[in-house]
Design goal:
single chain; 120 residues; mainly alpha; 47% helix; 8% strand
């Protein structure tokens, strides 16, 4: 495993340029574990960071992995991903937390099991 340098939090002018002056993503579509998949190839004239994201996301890739590979702050990556999502160049797959919560037994059932175990 090769050691990585620090994430690029440096030159604010560069980050300002990369995001087009935006400091926040338009929505909260992307959390750290959201999987992103490219829907197209990079095109000529595309912003280099956008093209790099499309290359990285040929296979499902988590937002946190994208930020690490680009060496950019997560907020900047979320803005860039929002741009690509708005133009349908990527799709985002959110973790299925709802399915996991639905599979947890009812609390009343758990209380009955606990009561039964205590009576043993």
């Amino acid at each position: 495993m090769t050691p990585r340098g620090p994430v690029d939090v440096g030159d604010p002018d560069r980050l300002y340029t990369v995001t087009g002056g935006r400091s926040r993503a338009d929505d909260d579509s992307f959390d750290l574990v959201t999987l992103v998949v490219s829907e197209c190839e990079p095109t000529a004239g595309m912003q280099s960071e956008h093209a790099r994201i499309l290359d990285l996301c040929r296979h499902p890739t988590a937002v946190v992995e994208i930020a690490a590979e680009l060496r950019l702050p997560i907020t900047v990556v979320r803005i860039l991903l929002g741009d690509l999502l708005a133009t349908s160049r990527i799709t985002a797959r959110h973790p299925r937390a709802a399915d996991a919560v639905a599979s947890i037994p009812e609390s009343a059932l758990l209380k009955e099991v606990l009561h039964g175990l205590r009576n043993l």
